[in-house]
Amino acid sequence: MEREILIVAILAAAIKAGTSILYATLGEIFTERSGILNLGVEGMMLIGALGGFMANLYTNNLVIGILVAIIAGGMLSLIHAFLCITLRSNQVVSGLALTLMGAGLSSFLGKSLVGVPAPNYFRAFKIPFLSNIPFIGRIFFQHDLLIYLSYIIVPLAWFFMYKTKPGLHLRAVGEDPATADSLGVNIYRIRYVYVLIGVCFQD
Description:
Distance between the termini: 38 Å
Number of domains: 1
Strand content: under 5%
Structural class: mainly alpha
Largest sheet: none
Shape: globular
Helix content: over 70%
């Protein structure tokens, strides 16, 4: 019995801890599918986290915090997109530079906020019936809204990428941009859009 409780606790904690990585991974998949390698994910996540936390702290509004996090990370992603898509700079150098900048800037600006509790956060709740399933229910269905959304977003992302026309355009731009361009697909627009979409997932 104690072993089962321990296993359930570990697996449930793994799902909770891994959700933020899952969202970042989904965002990076979309970005890389468009042909842009984004090694600045960590820096964008840190800046987004700092911006979201500060907005949540000073406005006491969770929705505003989320929006500010997306905007803050989006600003860094636009820099990366401009450098890599418009100026055609080295994607690895640009990404690593943004990671270092994001890590340093968030550490400097957030130093005074270390240890300050968040006024609002997503609270866990049990899904009726599903949370009562032995073993599985306690692992998967006793979390917060963002974790439940990840269960839905993953298959939707797959469906969008492989079963829709915009998803086909995305893959074509990343795999063979010359052919996509000859078919009238706007490569620059699609790459800018998916770099930004990638950051929305990450933040």
